[in-house]
């Protein structure tokens, strides 16, 4: 599905070889997982100065490999859903990069 949306590559986070093949290629990762998971799994995917943005709130705090963050100047940030301005910026970005949602029309009776 990601490739149908224009992604050039795909990483299966449960496959160490998939992560290794894409190591150091991401500028930003939007982490939408709201279940308990190890965020360290994603750190090898980030470029130097890369950012993981936490959007999903995991029920258990993350333990993070700080030395890895420091050596590659990587950042973990958090974000709430924005207001009208942030929504417009997102829509403009999607338009610029031709990112379109999947939609379905349901006839109301």
Please, what is the average pLDDT?
Answer: 88
Multimeric status of the protein: single chain
Structural class: alpha/beta
What separation lies between the terminal Cα atoms?
31 Å
Number of distinct helices = 3
Helix content: 10-25%
What's the CATH architecture name of the domain at 16-81?
Answer: 3-Layer(aba) Sandwich
Strand tally is 3
Q: From the alpha-carbon coordinates, what is the Rg to the nearest angstrom?
A: 16 Å
CATH superfamily of the domain at 16-81: NAD(P)-binding Rossmann-like Domain
**Major β-sheet annotation:** 3 strands, parallel
Question: For the largest beta sheet, what order do the strands appear in spatially?
Answer: 1-2-3
Provide the low-confidence segments as ranges. none
| CATH fold type of the domain at 16-81 | Rossmann fold
β-strand amount = 15-25%
What can you tell me about this protein's structure?
There is one protein chain. With 109 residues, the protein is an alpha/beta fold. The protein has a domain of 66 residues: NAD(P)-binding Rossmann-like Domain (Rossmann fold, 3-Layer(aba) Sandwich), CATH 3.40.50.720. 23% of the residues lie in helices and 17% in strands. A three-stranded parallel beta sheet has the order 1-2-3, with no helix packed on it. It is globular and about 55 Å long.
